[in-house]
Amino acid sequence: MSPAVWITIILITILLLNIIAVPFFGEAEFWFASIKLITIVGLIIVGIVLFFGGGPEQTSRLGFRYWNTPGAFTPYLVPGDTGKFLGYWTAFVRAGFAFITSPELIALAAGETIAPRRNIPKAARRFIWRLAIFYGVASLIIGVIVPSDDTRLLSPDSNASASPFVIGIQNAGIPVLNHIINAAILTSAWSAGNAFLFSGSRTLYGMALTGQAPKIFAQTNRYGVPWAAILATWAFGLLAYLNVSNSGAQVFTWFVNISTISGFIAWIVCLITYLRFRKAILYNDAYDTLPFKTPLQPHATWVALFVLVILTLTNGFHVFFPKNWSAANFLAAYITLPIFLVLYIGHKALRRTPFATKVDEIDIMTGKKEMDDLSASYTEPTPKNWLHKVWLWVA
């Protein structure tokens, strides 16, 4: 079956969920997220079983044998320790793809969240633990059950079987489960498209309201859905049809590079914005009134800012190595930088606005009284039983 069929089904479904079936958006996200969570937990359990040799075709304990042969660190581009470091750095850069625009969803949801001063800090704290447990442990499991030199891993000829979890399950001889995992991965990608169409369109809608984007994107239907912003954001999804005439792995690499560096730039802007916000808070002697404070500030922000700048500049370092040059890969890795600079500088020049607002002119008080009143009127729900108490803790 042509990939265009699946691309069309997914694109149309997420469009309908965001424009027409808005009441079902949250319900769909709940089930998508549930499938994702159950799948990750299941894969971690399967990985532990395979570690101890519990697969149908395993004759001995797997352990950490792949960390010795072919090795935990694989040289990349050059041999020796330098090659191993480049392999590590490539993985470090690519790992950003898994996290870009995800933390921002917490902030975007604040405007539509009940009791945001209670729920947003809770979501922010748990987000860190979820990353550490699900991403960290899952990455460890992958390194245990699949050798890095397996020919089925991502390559120009790879397909859905390139998933390391699927490869590990096939190596252990577990039947049917690999198809279930592929289906779960598909729903996970579906969920990501659904959530990011929501966040991207709401960002564009907010920019239109403040005059930073064309006014047409501020249009809504009778249900308050910003249909113009949704259609404009959704239109970029049509680039997925590149998979029809090109190698899926090559197109995936392009999208990873473009998305990752876009996310890095967005984080850099967020960090600089936070530093300015913090200065304004301290200037107004309002730091103690913040309902949520992150630790090690502002030092942690400066460290993160330095790391992100380095990651952004070295995102496509591999194209500069001999015999590795590719105009397509270079553009995918760095085209976002000049686009961002042109849009930012052009906006400042055309609007004749300062590049940075003076600290004493930064408005941090608008809307605060309304939030104070909202927080004062909110009462914590009383749990009806122990199950309801657990649910309230989770929610």
Key descriptive features of the protein:
single chain, 16 helices, 0% strand, mainly alpha, 395 residues
Model description:
The chain has helices spanning 3-19, 25-51, 65-71, 80-95, 102-109, 116-145, 164-171, 177-209, 227-235, 242-245, 248-283, 299-313, 327-334, 336-351, 368-377, 386-394. It is 64% helix and 0% strand. α5 (102-109) runs antiparallel to α6 and α7 (164-171) packs antiparallel against α8 (177-209). It is globular, with a radius of gyration of 23 Å. It has 16 helices and no strands. It is an all-alpha fold. The protein folds into two domains: 1-245, no CATH class; 247-364, no CATH class.
Summarize this, please?
By secondary structure, the protein is an all-alpha fold.
Fraction of residues in H or I helices? 55-70%
Distance from N terminus to C terminus (CA atoms, Å) equals: 41 Å
Low-confidence stretches: none
Q: How many strands, what sense, and barrel or not for the largest sheet?
A: none
The arrangement of helices and strands along the chain is: HHHHHHHHHHHHHHHH
Strand content: under 5%
From the alpha-carbon coordinates, what is the Rg to the nearest angstrom? 23 Å
Please report the number of helical segments. 16
Structural class: mainly alpha
Number of strands: 0
Mean pLDDT: 83
Which term fits the overall shape? globular
Layout: helices, strands, pairs:
Layout (H helix, E strand, L loop, with lengths): L2 H17 L5 H27 L13 H7 L8 H16 L6 H8 L6 H30 L18 H8 L5 H33 L17 H9 L6 H4 L2 H36 L15 H15 L13 H8 L1 H16 L16 H10 L8 H9 L1
Helix pairs in contact: 1-8, 1-9, 2-6, 2-8, 5-6, 7-8, 8-9, 11-12, 11-13
